[in-house]
Specification:
CATH superfamily of the largest domain: NAD(P)-binding Rossmann-like Domain
Distance between the termini: 41 Å
Order of helices and strands: HEHEHEHEHEEEEHEHH
Structural class: alpha/beta
CATH class of the largest domain: Alpha Beta
Number of strands: 9
CATH topology of the largest domain: Rossmann fold
Shape: globular
Number of helices: 8
Strand content: 15-25%
Largest sheet: 5 strands, mixed
Radius of gyration: 18 Å
């Protein structure tokens, strides 16, 4: 993802590389940048984000592993630092993936059983994926105080519960990324599937996030907020089912 971002920055007329850091670099090399783009490792990401917040640098975070609890910690750190610089947490830069999450969340109140199956290449170091975590959290938020039916959740084969929703992770050679959200009701199921066939699917989302970061207000989670799709999820369901 970092190499893809470097190619996009080099090709863009309105973007210029300040510094490209590796695991051996000092975080001080970030100082003076207009935007920090973090696609590192879950263990390293928080230190990078906190450094950027302390320096007042807007940040785009594409590293996986950021749950709502960890993001809340950055929000608290940002308040303590007294910075106006925004932090964008983008679990997936693919527009299609974001739409899959939004469509799943819109359908979620109408089904009692919901499970997520995510599959990635064998080299992915974390599970469940950040996209799956985000999807489960958005679904749970959309359902409000109505938990999904997740029988036998104490059994390891039933997946990891994220916001009360079972999430199953596959790591296989030959795959890039895929997510399926399976919603079950009486006599029917609905499956929302997104498949990533090429890393080029991330390009538009990366550029959008980089260009919007300097004007971001506070903490922004999800590409859906930059695309205006968050308004759909905010619609009041009190008059519905």
């Amino acid at each position: 993802m970092g190499q893809l971002a470097l190619r996009l920055i080099e090709a863009a007329d309105d973007l210029e590389l300040h510094a490209g850091l590796s695991s051996r670099s000092s975080l001080d090399e970030l100082d003076g940048a207009d935007v920090v783009f973090d696609v590192t490792h879950p263990a390293s990401s928080e230190g990078i984000v906190r450094h950027a917040v302390d320096r007042g640098i807007p940040t785009v975070v594409g590293t996986s592993g950021w749950s709502s609890e960890r993001i809340a910690g950055i929000a608290a750190h940002r308040r303590t630092a007294g910075t106006e610089a925004g932090v964008l947490f983008i679990p997936n830069f693919s527009v299609g993936s974001v739409l899959g999450t939004v469509l799943s969340a819109l359908a979620a109140p109408y089904f009692e059983s919901i499970e997520v199956v995510e599959a990635h290449h064998a080299g992915k170091v974390d599970s469940p994926s950040g996209t799956a975590v985000r999807t489960a959290e958005v679904i749970a938020d959309r359902r409000g105080d109505r938990p999904v039916q997740a029988p036998h959740a104490d059994q390891r084969a039933r997946g990891q519960l994220v916001a009360g929703i079972p999430v199953h992770s596959l790591r296989l050679s030959g795959l890039l990324a895929e997510q399926r959200v399976v919603l079950g009701g009486v006599g029917e199921t609905l499956t929302v599937t997104h498949s990533t066939l090429s890393s080029s699917s991330y390009e538009a989302g990366i550029l959008l996030a980089l260009r919007r970061a300097p004007e971001a207000d506070g903490i922004v989670v999800g590409l859906d907020a930059l695309l205006g799709l968050d308004a759909l999820l905010a619609h009041d369901l009190s008059g519905g089912r």
